[in-house]
Design goal:
Blueprint: E1 2-3, E2 5-6, E3 9-10, E4 20-21, H1 23-36, H2 63-74, E5 81-88, E6 93-100, E7 103-110
Antiparallel strand pairs: 1-4, 2-3, 5-6, 6-7
Amino acid sequence: MELMVRDGDYVSDGRGSFRRAEGSAELLQRVLWKLSIRRGCFPPLPGLGSQLYRLAGAQPARRGALARQYVTEALAEEESLLVDDVILSGTGTLQVRLTWRGETLRLDMDVQGA
């Protein structure tokens, strides 16, 4: 189990320790982490992360398709996880719909410059 993170900080359990994420909450936390890291920035694991940072330099008409490609690529090694849909709004909000072990999940995140 991973420590639960919210807004970049560990979440307190109210007893001097930190909450742990389990099940789908743990998966969504890991997905958010993978999508937030620039792909290639960690030399020991060059395939870790996403290329979502590149959306700012892409033509607006291509950003939606590229967002889907970058999300799918970043999450390819997650077992039992299917990327169902990726929607990029004009304001740079990315909505990712996933299926994991028969459960439908949704993740929303802001993408800088998209």
